[in-house]
Amino acid sequence: MPSPIHKIVMRRIYIIYVLGLVINTTALSVLVVVVALGAVTHVVHVGNVLANMPRLTSGVAPEHFLVSAFEHTKFITQVAVVSLLGAVSYFMYSAVSAFRAMRFTRTV
Fold this sequence. Notes:
0% strand, mainly alpha
């Protein structure tokens, strides 16, 4: 049976371990997001794309527009958009994982 001090120390060790994993991957994913956003905004004028986009309430037209716009861009823009989506997805996954790990270490 672990003592209360043992539980407190181990809880702190687990928190430090999880934070170390999240901070490193989070910094990398934020860096990828910044670089990908810079690449997209350098090549594409996002304001014009949004101005030409149909209303969001017009059924499937916005999805068709976005797919068509993606298909007719340069390869570097496609790579930047895919890496941006991947980095944001990974960032959200790591944030949820960290939240779940922190939730189990709280004292009652």
